[in-house]
Every structure is written in structure tokens, then in C-alpha cells.
Specification:
Blueprint (H helix, E strand, L loop, with lengths): L31 H6 L3 E5 L5 E5 L2 H7 L5 E2 L12 H8 L13 H9 L5 H25 L2 E3 H6 L1 H11 L6 H13 L6 H24 L5 H12 L4 H31 L2 H9 L4 H12 L4 E6 L3 E3 L2 E3 L4 E5 H4 L34 H18 L4 E2 L8 E2 L6 E2 L3 E3 L1
Parallel strand pairs: 2-8
Antiparallel strand pairs: 1-2, 3-5, 4-12, 5-8, 6-7, 9-12, 10-11
Helix pairs in contact: 3-9, 5-7, 5-15, 7-11, 8-9, 8-11, 9-11, 11-13, 11-15, 13-15
Bound molecules: protoporphyrin IX containing FE.
The site of protoporphyrin IX containing FE (HEM) has 24 residues, from helix 11 and helix 15.
Length: 411
């Protein structure tokens, strides 16, 4: 934390910088306790010097998330930028669908894809997810007694699942798996170009795939959208490719990081892991507690388009607002001992999937994947442990998503 007012000895309050980097991939960054103590709504300073409201209160965040006076329209020139690379995206006029647009466009897009993510469709995928998890573990066990869990398990599992859901040929994954990583997990200004290029290449691939599906329809969500919405003209080819790209990228990076970070957190809390091993019926609840505890999609940004009175303050039209899901999920007025991992806790009210109109579309799928991936991993590898000290595991310090770039384990 630094004094951005640069007023030595002056009475002006210090405005902390934001975001802050995590040292441990699944824990709060150093400096978060200080931010939490500043109250549910406080001022922070972004990398470009712009002031923003930081929302850390759970109740306040739940009031603000669904408020239509907060916009997600990333193409608005006044939309706050959390990192320099987002500026490049805006220059190219590439608004991510759903997550980067407001109603009514958002509502139309969401209505189109939501049937693909309902609990019936996800439940039908559970046996396929289990088959994928077992197959990957078989491969790891037969290859030796150590591996990088990220590339051997945590990434290929959600990758195969989202491909099955969308109807993207998994054999073509070498094209989009690595590019998906670059889109969401490259943080620095020098990586902006790589992220943009990767996204453009994924888009080109999906354009081509949609063309193939028009000629030879298959069974995935993208096949349905091509046969119905595209054919009827509810969506054009460019928009459909953008939506498919967003789903493909979100389906890879988010869940893979959650599987990796949850594995680390549980190995570091052997008492909690022992409870789960003794009673596997606790896994669904544990997944939500791990979501709350790790909050990997921590910094959700909005632009106020009208004045909003909240918590005795006025967020003015034009102000930047950052909702910290990690701090909301560790708000002591909502959670007892919020900084403890307690897999028996009723954690379902967390906001790690967001809240309100942009709440994660893939949450049912992600929960099923995490539950199956983690329970299968710990049941089939009873002696699994980190192969290097936890401090040596590199934190992927991206601004959008928290994660690791590798996770060496042995068993
Ligand atoms: C554990 C894994 C996941 C986490 C932590 C996560 C987190 C989030 C969060 C925090 C948001 C809200 C963004 C905002 O309010 O600005 C969101 C939205 C979204 N997520 Fe996820 N997500 C996960 C898995 C998935 C999966 C598997 C998919 C799809 C295959 C997906 C697709 C989406 C989409 C399309 C949105 C935008 C929804 C909208 O704007 O209406 N997510 N996710």
C-alpha cells in the first residue's frame, strides 16, 4: 500500500492502491485486512491514478450487484480499467458479450445461452465428467509417481467438459487450450497483445467451426444455437462466434484454477481434508466453501451511470466501482471466522460466482466439475501431496482471475 496523495505530513487521507497481488494463490493478498478495516465502501486508486469505490461489505455488494445504475458496458469510454491491457481491448472495440454489455443486449444474449446450462443438462453430463476424471487419473497413475496437476488434470478436465457441452471437437484442443490461458491469465501490459491475438485466433477458429456445423449439425449447445438462433436471424455469425468464444474461454480457465487452488488449500488444511475423506457426502458443501475461501474472480468492475446513495455515501454518476468478491466473502458481519476454511460451513450465500444479472451462467456446471474432480482426485490418490514447498508455486498474478501456472504434485 502506498500513499498516492503524496502529501507528506498533510492531513489528507491515504488512498490505497488497488488491485493488490496475492502472495499465496488462494489467500487474501497482504493489505486486504487494512482495506477491510476501512469499512464496506472506501476509496482506492487504480493503476492509471483514477479513484474508485471499493466495495468490501457483503450486504452493500448484494445491494449494488443487481442495481441497473451500475453498468458493465466496457466499451463506454468512461468505463474503469483495472489493468492496462483492457485499454487495448477497448481500442479494438471488442466488447465481450454477456459479461461486458448491459441490458437489453445482455438479456437477449443470456436468454439465448441459458438453456444450455440448466441443472438437467448439467446432471446429464455428470457421468461424462466422472469418466473424464477417471481417465485422466489413470493416465497420471500409469505415467509415474509425480506430475503437474494443472496440465495433467485441472486444465484438461474442464476443457473436455466444456467441449462436450458446446460441441467443440476435443481433438482440436491444442488450438484453443493454450490460447484460452493467454486470454484470461496474462496480466502485464506487454502481454496485452498476446491476449488479444489469442482471442482473435479463437474467434477465427469458432467462425470456421460454426460454418462446419451449418453443413453437419451435431449435438452441442453451439449446434443448437447455429441451427436455431443463427438460422432464424436472432443472432449473426460474428456475435455467435463471440458468445461461443466467451463460453469456451470461461469454461477453461475458471474451473481449472479452482481445481488447482482447492487442491492446494485442502492439502494445506489436512484436518478439513480428513473430514471430507471420512464423509464424502460433504463434498457439495465443501465446494461452495472453497469457492468462498479462494474467491478466484475477485475484482468485478462497474461504472456508475447515475448517483447511488449507499452506506452513508454517494457514488456519483461517472464513478468507478470495484466489487471485491474476496472481501465480500470474508466480511465478518456476514461470516463467522471468515478467514478460516471450514468445509462444514453453510457457504452457499457466497458471491464468488458474482450476483445479480451477470451471475455466472456456468455455476451449476462448475460446481459439478469441482465436486467430481476433487472427490475423485483425493479418493484415487490417497497419498497425494505437493512436490515442492507451497511458497515455490508461482502465483499467476493476473488481474481477472487468480491461479497458478503449474502445480507439481507427487503421490
Ligand atoms: C469455478 C469456476 C467459475 C468461476 C469462479 C466463475 C466466476 C464468474 C463470475 C464472478 C462472474 C460474474 C462476472 C461479473 O459480474 O462481472 C461470472 C460470469 C460468467 N461466467 Fe463464470 N465462473 C466459473 C465458471 C464458469 C463456466 C464453467 C462457464 C461456462 C462454460 C462460465 C461462464 C460465465 C459467463 C458466460 C458469465 C457472464 C454471465 C453474464 O454476464 O450474464 N463460468 N463467472
Amino acid at each position: 500500500m502506498t500513499d498516492t496523495t503524496a502529501a507528506l505530513g498533510a492531513a489528507e487521507p491515504v488512498t490505497p492502491e488497488f488491485p493488490l497481488a496475492r502472495k499465496c494463490p488462494y489467500q487474501m493478498p497482504p493489505g486486504y485486512e487494512g482495506l477491510r478495516e476501512r469499512g464496506p465502501l472506501s476509496n482506492v486508486s487504480l493503476w492509471d491514478g483514477r479513484r474508485a469505490w471499493l466495495v468490501t461489505g457483503n450486504a452493500e455488494g448484494r445491494e449494488l450487484f443487481p442495481d441497473p445504475r451500475l453498468s458493465s458496458d466496457v466499451l463506454n469510454p468512461a468505463f474503469p480499467l483495472l489493468a492496462p491491457r483492457i485499454a487495448a481491448q477497448r481500442e479494438q472495440q471488442m466488447a465481450p458479450p454477456l459479461v461486458g454489455v448491459d441490458d437489453p443486449v445482455h438479456a437477449r444474449q443470456r436468454k439465448m445461452v441459458i438453456p444450455g446450462f440448466g441443472s438437467r443438462r448439467v446432471n446429464a453430463l455428470r457421468s461424462e465428467i466422472q469418466r473424464i476424471a477417471d481417465g485422466l487419473i489413470d493416465n497420471m497413475l500409469s505415467a509415474g509417481d509425480s506430475a503437474d496437476l494443472l496440465s495433467s488434470y485441472a486444465l484438461p478436465l474442464p476443457s473436455a467438459v466444456v467441449c462436450a457441452l458446446l460441441g467443440v471437437p476435443y481433438e482440436e484442443r491444442s488450438y484453443f487450450e493454450e490460447r484460452s490461458r493467454h486470454v484470461l491469465s496474462s496480466a502485464g501490459p506487454d502481454q496485452a497483445e498476446l491476449a488479444e491475438r489469442s482471442f482473435t485466433e479463437i474467434l477465427r477458429y469458432l467462425h470456421d467451426l460454426i460454418g462446419r456445423k451449418e453443413n453437419e449439425p451435431g449435438e452441442g449447445l453451439l449446434d443448437d444455437l447455429t441451427a436455431q438462433q443463427l438460422a432464424e436471424g436472432t443472432v449473426n455469425r460474428d456475435e455467435l462466434a463471440m458468445i461461443a468464444a466467451l463460453l469456451l474461454v470461461s469454461g477453461h480457465e475458471t474451473t481449472s484454477n479452482m481445481i488447482a487452488l482447492s487442491t492446494m488449500a485442502l492439502l494445506d488444511h489436512p484436518d478439513q481434508l480428513a473430514v471430507l475423506r471420512a464423509d464424502p457426502s460433504l463434498w457439495p458443501g465443501a465446494v461452495d466453501e472453497l469457492m468462498r475461501f479462494t474467491s478466484i474472480g475477485d475484482t468485478l468492475v462497474r461504472l456508475a451511470i447515475e448517483d447511488i446513495e449507499i452506506a452513508g455515501q454517494v457514488i456519483e454518476a461517472g464513478d468507478a466501482v470495484v466489487l471485491s468478491t474476496m472481501l465480500m466473502n470474508r466480511d465478518p458481519s456476514s461470516w463467522e471466522k471468515p478467514d478460516e476454511l471450514d468445509i462444514r460451513r453453510a457457504a452457499g450465500r457466497h458471491v464468488a460466482f458474482g450476483y445479480g444479472i451477470h451471475q455466472c451462467i456456468g455455476q451449476n456446471l462448475a460446481r459439478a466439475e469441482m465436486e467430481i474432480a476433487l472427490s475423485t482426485l483425493f479418493a484415487r490418490m490417497p497419498r497425494i501431496r505437493l512436490a515442492v514447498p507451497a511458497e515455490r508455486i508461482p502465483v499467476n498474478a493476473a488481474y481477472v482471475l487468480q491461479g497458478v501456472s503449474e502445480l507439481p504434485v507427487t503421490w
